[in-house]
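Table 4 source record.
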Amino acid sequence: MTVQIDRTSKINDSEQWVYLTVNTKYDVHEFLHTAPQELHNAELQEYVDDREDFYVCEIYRNMYPHAPPEVYNGSREKFEEWIETEQTETDTVPWTYAHPKGRTADGDKISADTWKLLDDIKPVVTAGTVDPITNITVFLEKIFGRRDV
């Protein structure tokens, strides 16, 4: 796994944006972070390389917001172990805010009404005829009626 610096841009006299490509164990992701303005070339590469685990964990946290707290707040190794042993295809669908054990990412219990809504929306989102956001929009319009924004 590697971290590649794609480009940088100045924020102010002390900081710069660093546009990165981060290779995780499973995929390649773009990532934006900051670094001290005085770092360039090899020094900047060393700086981002030292933060590789942080970048990878942040990517996983965005991909799996429903991960149990001990995984979500844990190490990269703990996250990757959990992904390999606990994740299934259904855990990566758009409603990943729902924890598989019947709790939200915040630990609140999911009501029967919410489960019913999730069951109703799942075939619409996974229909594959249109992108998931459009599918969800169409589904919600059926429930609540069209809403012009």
